Amino acid sequence: MQLKNGRCDRDHHKRNADVDEKDLFRHVGHYAQTRCVKPRAKMGGITVKQYDSGEILIGKGFPFTNSLQDIKCYAREISGTLAPNIKYFRYVGKKIELPKNKPFYIDKVQFSVECRNKRNTLIYTNAFATFPKKKVARHQQNSAFTKDNQFSISILVLDSTSRNQFYRHAPKTLKFMKENGFKILWGYNKVADNSAVNLMPILTGMTIGPAFDYPGRVVPLNLTFLERDLLNRKWEKELFIKRVKELGYTTMWNDDIMVTKLGLFSYGLFKGFLRPPADFYFRPFYSYLYSKKNARFHCVEGELASRRYLKLWKNFALKFRNHSHFGFTFLTALTHDDPAAVGLLDPDIYHSLEDLKKSGGFENTIHIIMGDHGHRIRSIQKTYTGRLEERMPLFSIRFPKRFKKLYPEKVRKLEENQNRLVSNYDIHQTLHEVLFGDLNTKTRGTSLFQDIPLNRTCTDILIPQNHCTCMEKVEDTSKVRAKHNIATKIDALLSDYINSTTSEMPCVHNYTFNRIPTIKILSMNPLARFGVRFIKNLIEFKFQKKYRTPADNEIYLLETTGNMNATTVHNNFVLNFTSRFSYNRLTGDVFLEIDPFITLSSTNCKIYILKDLCKCQ
Hints:
The two termini are 31 Å apart. It is built from 18 helices and 25 strands. Mean pLDDT is 91; it is low at 1-7, 9-15 and 211-216. Helix content is 25%, strand content 22%. The strands form six sheets. Strands 1, 19, 20, 21, 22, 23, 24 and 25 form an eight-stranded mixed beta sheet that branches. This is (pine wood nematode) hypothetical protein.
């Protein structure tokens, strides 16, 4: 993808950054395990456990063996956290005394459990959320599938998680996803800076204005929620989670708010929701944990808090696996400040997906696992690769077998579009087509089930230049060091690639290869490399001298072309090569980014990488 005045003129199987780029070396670490220590001072040996079924057990905690005889525990429903009092949960109804040493249900969506000893000292407090049997049964009755082409949607958003971060830190989940039909988008480019402005276009098709407007306005005003629209709550009416209620879907809004004054669409000009946006709305549960249990430090009663939040995502999908539902889960606190923290959830996401698969949770539901944007906090985001990753969040999607059987052409198109430049508006149109059978005419974007042009531009899909990851041509090549012998290194890498690939292709008898001498040099646009996020940052950008042009960047993208004549068992082929290399101008390192993109001359056989040539026999 090459950018000219904010425009990309090509995209062909380009990877924007390798997960192990050398400029990340000092900034990437991994956590081996969590160390959540259970508080002992007032516990008196008591343990309160919630099972996946929703049952609660109050028992003795091992190795402490204090008697529970003089301890009394009570449950009380919690609610509230609606505008204008989004920060505060409230108690509802009377306290219910709880049994000990035997599992029990509480027929409430969210509730607190508090225990006191014989001196009336509070020795335990916690909040729980679940899916009560009666409410689940009622919603199951009202959310039966009414059409053969109706599907549920489950969205799991991991805050500040780029595609490359996920590849680095979630290997177990990634392996499962690849083996079970998840499609990962390689050209997905965010459209704005933080969570709300990136998730709003996906969930409504609109953005929040005024949009970034340098060097010219990108998002038309008719696609923008202005201040008056936020205050009069026009945005609420456009949310998918509101609109699918008209279709009979059961809904869940599971938003990890991180602190009581935040939460998605609850900060800044947003004032939160006047009424619960979903049938299962868990903000009171989170408000309790963050105000009373210091959940911002990630551990609650000896357990990683985010694991509990993740269970709500899984259990909702399981409870309604045979009924139409729309679930939105946004995990924030754990991954927001730390690019490695997603690794702590890797085993849990993996096992959750396994449970969903074994229990039929994949049969009727389209599952999406994604990031809202890449990491924006720690030092990694200031590197060249970090700037790219910040702008290229994770997006993966899995379709049920029933969907693929009904719409094989749509799935094929999406697979074809995995390497194309796409934005949040395209995701919106794709989900809109799944849910409502058509496109949203109020907004932009192209469904991933349709043709995505190869010559797409950031401007076409409403990506401002400061967030655009398309490459600009390096006009001043004086900083390309002659001593690095770039051409020699490229020839050696191509020779190694072709030799090693053809050695495993029995159909190829011999070949000749010729590289065109011209090397095109590309790099990130200066606004993105410097890290401009808002209009107010432009003054700072204009007065800095480090990144004035793409030539100032540390890493360049080198593009070469060539042709190969290959003799196979039955045919002679002419292959046109386009190869891309990463070049670090400071160290001289050059490596092949991804398999060269090829096209065949004088044949109708379509392949894109060399190793597939034998399919054209």
